[in-house]
Amino acid sequence: MHSVAVERVVTGTEVQLMSGLEAEELTRKQGMNSRVILVGAVIVALVGGVILGRFSSGLGGGGSLADIASERGMTVEQAEGALKAFTPPGEYDEYVLVSSGGHSGQLHLVGVPSMRLLKTIPVFTPESWAGYGQGADWSQAILDEGSSNKQARELAWGDTHHPALSETEGAYDGRFVYINDRANGRIGMVDLRDFKVKQILDIPNMQTSHGGVFVTPNTEYVHVSSMTPMPQTENGYADLEDYADLYRGMSTFLASDPDTGRLDTDASFQIELPPYTQDLADAGKLESFGFAFINSYNSEMAVGGNAEGGVPIETGASQADFDYLHIIDWQKAEAVANAGGTEERNGMRVIPLETAISEGILYFAPEPRSPHGVDVDPTGNYIVIGGKLDQNATIYDIALIKEAIANEDFEGTDRYGVPILTFESVVAGQVLLGAGPLHTQFDGEGHAYTSLFLDSAIAEFTLGPKAGVPDGEAFQLVDKVSVHYNIGHLAATEGDTVAADGRYLVALNKWSVDRFPVLGTLKPQNFQLIDLTADKMAVLADMPIGFGEPHYSQIIRLDRLTSAIETYEPGTDPLTFGPPAFATAAGEERVERDGSEVHVYMTATRSHFTPDILRVREGDTVFLHVTNIEITPDATHGFAVPGYNLQASLDPGEVVTLAFEADRSGSFAFYCTEFCSALHLEMQGWLLVEP
Ligand code: RUQ
Ligand code: CUA
Predict the structure, then answer these.
(1) Residue 551 Cα: closest atom of ligand 1
(2) What's the rounded Cα separation, in Å, for the pair 532 and 491?
(3) Is the model's pLDDT at 27 over the cut of 90?
(4) Which bound ligand lies closest to the C-alpha atom of 373?
(5) CA 182 – ligand 1 centroid, Å
(6) Does the Cβ of 439 fall within 6 Å of ligand 2?
(7) What is the pLDDT of residues 204-257, one digit of tens each?
(8) How many whole angstroms separate alpha carbon 514 and alpha carbon 66?
């Protein structure tokens, strides 16, 4: 944290012309390390020693910065916020925020600090602008694969919650991002070469997953834990009377192929957990490498039944003063799995709960009432827990945890026999923060930032000596900032990693209430950008989210996204990154008929498809192999057929196959859906389906 000195030089005349508000702001600034210097002719604003602009009223035709701010009714603080967040046209943001898209089922990329939406990556939900799940073979293959395992029906949506960027030595490496589907217990993998999803895995033996997603520090594994436990029975059914006996949670370690990022079920394993509700999770790093931490609530095992004479889940699940932090030694689990200590369940190696206990894989530590977030600090020493119904952040120390395990310092076991470490022996400190602490991020300089859902605020506090904080200043609340409203997650720049840099924080607010104009009954959620470089945290910008509710985000430095490509090698199938058999070069376009099967080898380039007339007969099966033969970046073409539900988007070099039954006779004018050139409207042709 360094403070930013603000110096402002104003003319005597201009001071007289200042609005009351502005004068007030200047006075306030003076109280905050600022100096107001009056001189004769010009106003110069110095922010951090840099001359920002000349505030002379005569300069620049459009008025001075001060005039613009006052004309627009802005305070000095707001104007400063605008300058700090603004990324000039044509320039790049320094960071990219990778955000879940909630029940839109997608991922969203946002530039930081400008808070401009840069891209949407379709994952679980068909998205017609990207030609995703609208007939293009590669996207259909991914969606089909993701509905193949435990799902009895084809799934057409997802609820994305927790993105997890791949890491090397605990820092983002810009290669892959994983994202879970809260609703259906699935996970998607997006390749950060072309920013397209390459795999959706339907994880066996669990039904839902919430925040239990992280990668281990070298992306050895992608972890997904279940949220609501499910019956571990043949048919997936058990009455709720048998909840304690037959329902189980799962901690899943999915092995990730280092070259492709694909998750390999054969090399993966699961650890069976008691039927508590496993919630957020995080990976140990550095000092805590090899451990995984999962929060749980509902150790009461409430199942509801408020219309059957029982108590509602919300009441039943909030009785106990403590729930259990799950501490998992995943390297031990890996060794046990590789030594055959598993049972096979629906194609997955499962370490039964008894084995996890007897092999010392699973321990519990008590955590205050109904905890939510668990976050490991950049040094790996501290594990911060937010307890929804407790006003404190509770900070655990990995050295104390290891010691307590070694000394068998247990206060007992739970009903399944999992040893419970003594609370006092593993906790390094508690900090009273306010109402509804949820999630915590870090700045890499010994500070932690916790979202307070009920207070609609973020609290900043110091960690302990092992994060570089002097003894006397350890575990102290140092600052708070209000956000609008009801913050869930928050994301600091690289704040999940060993490289947390303390530049910006983004608040992911669940409500926006009165923040935006009334445009109907459904209001947007709101991202708020917060400056972490000033002495006090300050909100710089709002970004209303006009799509599904984002849950969690991670912020990666732009310069880490080094594997991103601009065009495919000519004739590339996005799914494999290799050339498919039907890649077509210019001059090789053709139509091949085999009985009622018609294969069209087509090319697309500005501003025509070749061939541009396709003659088929009603009842034929048509395979349209389209190759975009452009090599120019951004020369994307679309391919859409009216009435046939077909739409593909072809980036330069890309090949897609659209397969369909020509079951509707007629003359259909197919066309390119991207405004690709001056003759874009001419980029069309005819599909003639002869009756
Ligand atoms: S957890 S409601 Cu990521 Cu706070 Cu979901
Ligand atoms: Cu190609 Cu429009």
Answers:
(1) 3
(2) 12
(3) no
(4) 1
(5) 10
(6) no
(7) 999 999 999 999 999 999 999 999 999 999 999 999 999 999 999 999 999 999
(8) 28
pLDDT in tens, 358-380: 999 999 999 998 899 999 999 99
DSSP 8-class letter at 537: -
Integer Cα distance of 203 and 158 in angstroms: 14
Q: Cα separation of 474 and 471, whole Å?
A: 5
Residues 6+ apart with CB under 8 A from 368: 321, 322, 385, 387, 389, 390, 392, 394
**Nearest ligand for residue 675 CA:** 2
Are 25 and 17 spatial neighbours (Cβ–Cβ below 8 Å)?
Answer: no
Q: How far apart are CA 326 and CA 420, in angstroms?
A: 9
pLDDT at residue 407 in the model: 98
The residue written with tokens 């679309």 in the block is 638
Residue whose CB lies within 8 A of the most ligand 1 atoms, among 159, 370, 454, 489, for a mutation test:
489
Per the CB < 8 A criterion, the answer to whether 500 and 378 are in contact is: yes
Phi and psi based region of residue 290 (left: phi greater than 0; alpha: psi -120 to 50; beta: remaining): left
pLDDT of res. 127: 96
Cα–Cα distances (Å) from 26 to 21, 30, 53, 72, in that order, read 9, 6, 17, 17
pLDDT in tens, 391-409: 999 999 999 999 999 999 9
Q: What is the mean pLDDT of the chain?
A: 91
What is the model's pLDDT at position 35? Answer: 33
Secondary structure class of 403 (helix, strand, coil): helix
- 161 Cβ inside 6 Å of ligand 1: yes
Which atom of ligand 1 is the closest one to the Cα of 162? 3
Q: Closest by alpha carbon to 364, among 403, 414, 317?
A: 414
Strand ranges across the sheet with 525-531: 487-492, 504-509, 525-531, 538-545
> Could you tell me what percentage of the chain is helix, strand and coil, using 3-state DSSP and rounding each to the nearest 5?
15, 45, 40
Q: How many CA atoms lie within 13 A of 659 on its CB side?
A: 8
The C-alpha atoms of residue 352 and residue 279 are separated, in whole angstroms, by: 20
Task: Quick: pLDDT tens for 611-662.
Answer: 999 999 999 999 999 999 999 999 999 999 999 999 999 999 999 999 999 9
